[in-house]
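ATP/GTP-binding protein
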Amino acid sequence: MRASSEVSMAGTDGTTTNMDHTARPGHPDRTTRMDHTNETGKTDETGDTDDMDDMDDTPVMYVQSSVAGAAKILVVGPMGVGKTTLIGTVSEIKPLSTEATMSQAGARLDTKVRPSKTTTTVALDFGRITLGGELVLYLFGTPGQQRFLPAWKDLARGALGALALVDTRDLEASFDAIGHLEDLDVPFSVAVNAFPDSKPHSEDDLRSALDLLPHTPLVICDAREHQSSVKALISLVSHLIETLTEAS
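C-alpha cells:
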C-alpha cells in the first residue's frame, strides 16, 4: 500500500513541515524517550535520550526498512469517546498524550461527561503504527472540546483522512466532529466504540442517525483491544485508497 509521496505536518503556529514518505532504515522517530520491545511484545520505556551512556546497547523502535509510504491520520470525536485509548492501544511506539485533570473552570465550558471521566486531552495525542510492513500511519488525536477547535483545524492540515469515533450512548455529541471533517473536506470513516453499557443498534439505524453517505465506512470496534482497533484503521485506509483511486 502506498500513500501520497509527501505528508504535510502542521504546527500550531501556522507553519507547515513536509515529511518525506520514504522511511530511512536506522532513523528512529524523534521522541523524547527511547523504547524497546520486550519478550511479551510490549513497549518499555528506557529513559531520556540525554542519557547516552545508558543507550549504547538499547534496541530502538525504528521504522521498518520495508516501509514505502506514510500518512497523517486524524482520530476525532467528542470528549470521552476513546481517542486516547485507541491510539495508546495500537501505537508501536510510546504514545504522546497531553492528558490533564479536568477542572471546575473547564466544566463550566465543556459538555458534561460521566463522573468516571477525570482527565481530558488538551492539545493532542500522537502514536505510530505500521500496516502490512509497507505503510506507516502517524496518528493525531484531536481534543474533543469545542474551545480547542482552532488547534483542531491546525491538526487537520495535511491529513490524508480521519477516523471518527462515536459513542452510541450520546450520538449527538459526535455531530460536530463529523461536521468539521465534512467542512474541511477530509475523507473519513466512522468507528463505533462499543462501551460495556452501550445498547446494540443496527447499521441502518446508525447510518440514519449520523446522516452518513452510503460510501462512508462504518465499523464497530473496542478501543481497548488492539486487533479491533487495527481493523478500524484498516477499514479507513482501504476507503482512502479506493477514494484516491477513483479520483485519479
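The longest helix spans residues 226-247.
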